Amino acid sequence: MKTRLATAIATICAAGLLMPNVSVATGFADFQQAITDGDANVKLRYRYERVDQDNIDKETNASTLLTRLSYKSADFGGFYTQLEFDNVTALGNENFNSTVNGNTNYPVVADPIGSDFNQAYVGFKTESLHFTAGRQRINHNDQRFVGGVGWRQNEQTYDGYRLRYDNQSGLNVDYSYIHNVNRIFGTDSPNSDLGGNIHLLNVTYKINADHKVAGFAYELDFDTANAIATRTLGVSYDGKVSAVNIHAAYARQNETGDNPTDFSTDYLALELSTKLSAVNVGIGYESLGSDNGKGFTTPLATLHKFQGFADKFLATPGQGINDLYVKASGSIGKLKLLGVWHQFESDVGSVDYGNEFNFNATYPVYKNTNFLLRYANYSADDFAVDTNKLWAMMTFTF
């Protein structure tokens, strides 16, 4: 908190230096006005999560509520501040393993109760530059490598400095230096933080309305989590050719810092989708390779988005993983539906891990009120165990 206060004071002083012709009284009045004219909102997200996992006798029935209070000041000479405070509460008995509540006789639902600042940063913005310092949300591209894990009640955010450049003609450069990652496990967990020297560079170029390319470089040198200290270089493409939407990505990863394993392995993704009548259909393949017993890792990703909603592959197996999937989506009025089927196998050794079916439905009940129903059925062959998960979620924003 002292660090944030010092940052805020330095920011205000800098504003005075940047605007020397503005009197102290006038500047303070403008600052007060910026605070008064800021926007505040409240988000409530209730979620029920049921987990039936073959190797644990008890079934999880987790009922949790996220309350998020957000405030963003108005502009003050290009400066502004963003504050976001979260509280996660369990409604009823904690019949689930939150990873910190000691209820290990239940399957895991990683939504620990507690309160914390989700975001607290100062920003400065011009027409083409945007600088932020403090605790902040960072999402790159489709969040396959860097994301906020927004699915969980306690979001993943980043402590550090971020500089973005937008030349208003398609080129965007996004660089962050991060000294700590605030993970989803809550402040009471020994796994709550990932400290280190973390460099995140993402460059995108929108060629035209139908084609966009990106290049990225991620140096993840952690203080203690040496096994996942990696350097990743990659490229991606998103576009449309005739009626076919294309997503393609390739990355190369090797060890960095004090990682004890010498390895070099690849990531590959390709998805093709199109619309048939009123239904969107797609087929995709994603491969996280393996070398020297080490699988390609993405520890900062929003992992729930990938390789099945059952979350059986949050950590890449040592033999890597290949995911072949097909999906279909469509709408019935305001009701949006999605179905996905996955077939998983190892990248090395042709091990049949298992398969999974996912279903998702969303419906806007009222203005600023949305309902979500989600289901995952993982059928194990040679990895993990059979698992069924069901979620029902209602989100309100004010």
Shape: globular
DSSP summary: helix tally: 2
Helix share of residues? under 10%
What's the CATH architecture name? Beta Barrel
Low-confidence stretches: 1-22
**The biggest beta sheet, please?**
18 strands, antiparallel, barrel
Total DSSP E strands? 20
Strand content: over 45%
Mean pLDDT reading: 93
Order of helices and strands: HHEEEEEEEEEEEEEEEEEEEE
Question: N-to-C terminal Cα separation, in Å?
Answer: 27 Å
CATH topology: Porin
What structural class should be given to the helix and strand makeup?
Answer: mainly beta
Organism: Alteromonas alba
Keywords: Signal
Signal peptide: 1-25
Domain Alginate export: 42-259
Topology:
Elements: H1 2-18, H2 24-36, E1 39-53, E2 60-72, E3 79-90, E4 114-125, E5 129-136, E6 157-166, E7 171-182, E8 193-208, E9 211-222, E10 230-241, E11 244-255, E12 264-276, E13 279-288, E14 290-291, E15 294-295, E16 321-332, E17 335-345, E18 352-366, E19 369-380, E20 387-397
